[in-house]
Amino acid sequence: MRMRNRHARALLAGTTAAVLGLAGCDAQGGDDAGASGTPARQAKPSPTSLWDSSPDSVAAVGDSITRGFDACGVLADCPEVSWATGSSAEVNSLAVRLLGAAKAATHSWNHAETGARMADLPAQMVRAAAQKPQLVAVMAGANDACRQSTAAMTPVADFRAQFEEALRTLRRALPKTQVYVASVPNLKRLWSQGRTNTLGKQVWKLGICPSMLGDADALDSAATLRRATVQKRVEAYNTVLKEVCAKDARCRSDGGAVYDFRFGTDQLSHWDWFHPSKDGQARLADMAYRNVTGKTS
């Protein structure tokens, strides 16, 4: 989901200026219905009597979504609007909701990295553990599916092994720290929303998630199969996240809440029409807070 070269930045800036006047919102989005049109799932946390719904410190690990990439400006991180640890009043992040703004400023840390994949999570966990947080918030996996081609996507078995290693890494240092795991967003839903926007499609050509967003208007059998393959892989990743988390008594998954959320264009960055906007980050924060503080079933 990250673009790396300077030429792409310059081209994007020009593209943005040229077509911004054509951009417009086509949907409000929201969490009234899931991706299939059924009511969105309110996550059912993994049952555990060990869960503390009022941790006094929060660390975040993951990828560009948790860094607030493209939420404030073009091709730039904006951690102050991160759903997990941001300070923005517009987002009201998980850390702020749990700790209050003053304490969140000194007792929350963002170790996510734009472009990170699941293989990068163990190293992030090492850095997070150094602060001894009582809760670690995880959102990772989108970049494992967002590759140059479907063949380059992370195999499911490798994804599982990498996530298990990340949790083991944390547990070696902090056996009692709690973990909240958000599901991977519905990338096909993001394609279906962003492709209606002229700016979005121009930006995507610069290399954002080509496995899903490449040839955005193509509806031939090959393009349909490619997107279905990515979608199936995302669903498999979410199964892994839920299953691995369920084996840890101090881990809660979101039960597919992020995947099910119907991101509309108001919830997407108006720079790339793919990453969450400030409004989208606020929705992620709300889902996380409800899961972390919710009673077990």
Question: Which structural class should the secondary elements be placed in?
Answer: alpha/beta
- CA-to-CA gap between the ends? 35 Å
Q: What gross morphology would you assign?
A: globular
Biggest sheet, spatial arrangement of strands: 2-1-3-4-5
Percent strand equals 5-15%
Q: How much is the radius of gyration in Å?
A: 18 Å
Q: Give the averaged pLDDT, no decimals.
A: 87
How is the biggest beta sheet arranged? Answer: 5 strands, parallel
Summed up, the helix count is 12
**Which regions have little confidence, pLDDT < 50, spanning 5+ residues?**
2-28, 31-48
Number of strands: 5
Percent helix: 40-55%
Report the order of strands and helices.
Answer: HEHHEHEHHEHHHHEHH
Describe the structure.
The protein has 297 residues and is of the alpha/beta class. Helix content is 41%, strand content 7%. It is built from twelve helices and five strands. Strands 2-1-3-4-5 form a five-stranded parallel β-sheet, sandwiched between helices. The longest helix is centred in the C-terminal third of the chain and has 26 residues. The chain is globular. The N terminus is likely disordered.
